[in-house]
Amino acid sequence: MAEVNWKKAYHDLENHIEAIMRETSELVNNASPKLRLNDVLIEKTNTLDVVIDATGDTMEYAIDLIDRKGKIETIKTGYQKANAFSFDIPAGRYTITAYAKESLKDNSRVFEKIQVNFKKDVK
Amino acid sequence: MRKYLMICNAYPTLENLYSNSFLHRRVKAYQQEGLHVDIVVITTKVLKDKYYDGVQIKYMDEYQIASFLKANDYSTVLFHFINKKMFHGIEQLSEEKRPYIVVWLHGFEAEAWHRRYYNFLENINQLDNMLERKDTVFEPQREFLRDIMTREDLNITFIYVSRRFKELYVDPYVGVVPEKYYIIHNIIDNELFKYQKKSSDDRFKICSIRPFTAKNYANDLTVEVIKKLSRKKYFKKLEFNIYGDGKLFNVLTNPLKTFENVHLHKGFVKQDDIPEIHRGHGIYLGPSRHDSQGVSLGEAMSSGLVPVTNAIGGIPEFITHKETGMLAPRDDVEAMVEHLEYLYKHPRKFKKISEQASKSIKQQAGIDTVISKEVEVITNGRSKLEKGLS
Q1: Predicted confidence (pLDDT) per residue in B296-321, tens digit
Q2: How far is A27 from chain B (nearest CA, A)?
Q3: Domains along chain A with CATH numbers
Q4: Which residue of A has its CA nearest to B177?
């Protein structure tokens, strides 16, 4: 059985490498960043303020706020374009689930769950 | 009487005249040589037999093909665009009942997943999709080809459409070279694409007939070449006619709309209409990034046009630079412009290349050449062939 001429095939492929890298560079430069949730920032004043810091393409944000003692009903904000939320709620212990998703992609969603002990800071 | 069966993925019908029309060209030529070939198209759809130009076409899935092969005693089975499902029927036959098999390797069915990288690097989704297909489609196909190329229980011969296609694309993909193979090119129909002697002035008339469906057809290079030529003093003496259709047509050709001597003809060009276009031009501008042979270049050569293209894939096997056409390195727009300028400045050389191109391609891939070789192979009478020589 004859052998594959690997050397010849390699040199042909080598001819493509610069072009492959150029195409890849263009792809990377034009690519939208990969969806990820960087941080959930909490500020406690008279209200409980939450800012979701996420990276991705055309983002939407949402929050589920659960009162761990069950005094108030769970708040589900639904998705919105703004990444900042403000809740005028009684002091207490809450569980916050912060979501971020890309509007144009189905099934793209990241979330983070955090516990908060909220005391009103009345100045 | 020996019975021949061709199994393929598509065959022309009255409703779809241009689907693998080159297979019908072959079958008609085999008929003229006294060989009767039955046709089976593999499909999961339930379709009645169709008749096209005196040929009966049966439609079957892999299990029906297996039953059909068991019930009919074919001495030879011919495969085009082969895959594992198409071959299932052969596997179901006992070793002593298996026919002589001839497999044509044309292009996509025998290439590595990365060969046409420019077609799937437009966005991440395309790339992800191809990476998935690498494992689900390309790897099983590679294993299948490797299996049938190395098995000793099959009497099987492979036909590659060019030597460079075999050595650069197929061999490194499959990783083995089959015991029995021939290099037989696709037919360049020299009866349809008859040579017409060109005058010196024909070198001013440049045409391109290409699909605009993917980047491998390199129509972006055609546009860049014309834009660069527009800075030359003699540009207005030239006339360009760009034919083709596909999602990239408008996007790519838009910058050419400003030139009065560039005519854009968007639409599918029927094969029967191409000779008339060839008659009106002297140069065929047909850049390429990927070709196992370059049939459209060969057809233009047959008509007497001088091809200006790239030295990639199988193309250099059919075009010798400055003898039967003009070859530029991959993606080299500057070199293509220089080659067109050379033809502009050397009318006598243009006429000579035109004549030589037509003669050469007829000799290499004309109907008589190809059919006599194929008939030798499929009848298993190899007296006129030397193994591996085109």
Answers
A1: 999 999 999 999 999 999 999 999 99
A2: 6
A3: 36-118 (2.60.40.10)
A4: A2
